[in-house]
Amino acid sequence: MSESDEERKKILVAPLNWGLGHATRCIPIIKALIDHNFEPIIASDGVALELLRKEFPNLKALKLPSYNITYAKKASSFKFKLIKDSPHLLKTIKKEKKAVDALLKSENISGIISDNRFGVRHKSVPSVFITHQLKVLSGSTTWFSSKLHQKIIKKFDECWVPDNLGEHNLSGKLGHPEGFQSSVKYLGPLSRFNKKVMPTKYDLLVVLSGPEPQRTFLEEKLLNELDSFNGQVCFVKGRIKDTQEINEKGNITSYNYMTSEQLEPAINESKVVLGRSGYTSIMDYAKLEKKAFFIPTPGQFEQEYLAEKYDLEGIAPCSTQKDFRIEMLSKIEDYKGFTAMNYQVNFKKLFNLFQGK
């Protein structure tokens, strides 16, 4: 006999609105919470909140204060802009804490899962922080940014890293720093998708995401480059709107966004994928065993590191945004592509944290 709605424990799931990756990797966690008889309550802002509302129309979805994270127009100004925006960031974290305090009372929250939202935690309920970056790359200030991030992580009851422990992993030094002591649990890679054997429909799938203005810069560049591409292209812009827009122009079918239900077959039906080297995308391509080409977001050290890592390992080629030319896609033939990691997240054991004593 299932518990009534009143008896189901409510878990706040709050991903950061920075691109779509934080929101999309929470999708399998939200589904698992439902399967294990919890009631997830979604909380975020911007496109991350809009995407999760589309994925889970029947769940309560609440707006949190926005970090308003945008990239500098020039990659070289990325770190300076983050420093410049830090006072606003600190104010937002304080607002988050107040919002969470109010939600705990109004919604009777029994647990919190925060994907990189620093202020979404509370001493009175078990609070989890999800990240693949125990080490935060920031060039000459990597030591400082890592220590700062680790200090925040230690304020949570547990830290869940969506990767494998050991040498055979996806995040490299980001998720496996030396000497960091905390309540870290390695979940194995998280993906909302499943591999399916399907006939090839597209020669190339383009998947865009990430904060502006760099998302638009890459969209414009790729659409220009694709003028000379002969195969069938599916172009997913990563622009979440109230309605889906589909346009066909020559050999390119473009979508402003796709839900998980649409994107899963699109990836399975495509020969190769072109897009950012965001960690969530990497987990998806590994699960679906795809060949990919990466263009890291200019100035984002994490994506640049991951793109170079997979290039050096012979898994996926990469290029800077400035230097990319469509002819470079031919390099993919010389790379082995991603292979799946056999893993099964033990959500029942993981969610014991929220069951209380």
Please describe what this structure looks like.
- There is one protein chain.
- Helices cover 31% and strands 17% of the residues.
- It is α/β, with parallel strands linked by helices.
- It has two domains: 10-188 and 343-354, 3-Layer(aba) Sandwich (Rossmann fold); 202-334, 3-Layer(aba) Sandwich (Rossmann fold).
- It has a seven-stranded parallel beta sheet with strand order 3-2-1-4-5-6-7, with helices on both faces.
- The two termini are 22 Å apart.
Brief descriptors of the model:
about 350 residues; alpha/beta; 2 domains; 7-stranded parallel sheet; 10 helices; about 30% helix
Question: Which structural class is indicated by helix and strand composition?
Answer: alpha/beta
Order of SSEs: EHHEHEHEEHEEEHEEEHEHEHH
Low-pLDDT stretches are none
Q: How much is the radius of gyration in Å? A: 20 Å
**Count of distinct structural domains:** 2
The termini sit apart by 22 Å
Helical stretch tally:
10
Q: What overall form do the CA principal axes indicate?
A: globular
CATH topology of the largest domain: Rossmann fold
Helix content: 25-40%
Largest sheet: 7 strands, parallel
Give the CATH superfamily of the largest domain.
Glycogen Phosphorylase B
Question: Strand arrangement, largest sheet?
Answer: 3-2-1-4-5-6-7
Proportion of beta-strand residues: 15-25%
The average pLDDT score comes to: 90
CATH class (first level) name of the largest domain: Alpha Beta
- What is the annotated CATH architecture of the largest domain? 3-Layer(aba) Sandwich
How many β strands by DSSP? 13
